[in-house]
Amino acid sequence: MVEIFKTNICDEHLARTIVSELNLMYSDYLINIDLEDGDKVLRVESRGEIDVSGVIAFGNEKEVQIELIDD
After folding, report:
1. DSSP 3-state assignment of 32?
2. Whose CA is closest to 60, among 3, 5, 1, 2?
3. How many domains are there within the chain?
4. I want to staple 65 with a disulfide (CB 3.0 to 4.6 A). Which of 5, 8, 24, 26 is the partner?
């Protein structure tokens, strides 16, 4: 399963921090952020279900916009 999120992350340091903290919360997910993409895409991949609401709530806690991009 793969979910793609639009973010407002523009800084490489912040991107690394967000990915590290999400990896601690969701160790079975593969997570990366593409700062070159216009939507500053956060890509989350997992063999099982992805906790979309948890990822979005994490962004809210960190004052980072994370919103699901619907297919």
Report:
1. strand
2. 5
3. 1
4. 8
The CATH number linked to 55 is 3.30.70.100
Q: Provide the residue type at 10 as one letter.
A: C
CA 71/CA 62 separation, integer angstroms: 26
CA distance 25 to 70: 23
Q: How many CB atoms lie within 10 A of CB 32?
A: 11
The pLDDT tens digits of the residues spanning 41-55 come to: 999 999 999 999 999
Task: Give me the domain span that covers residue 42.
Answer: 2-68
Tell me the pTM. 0.93
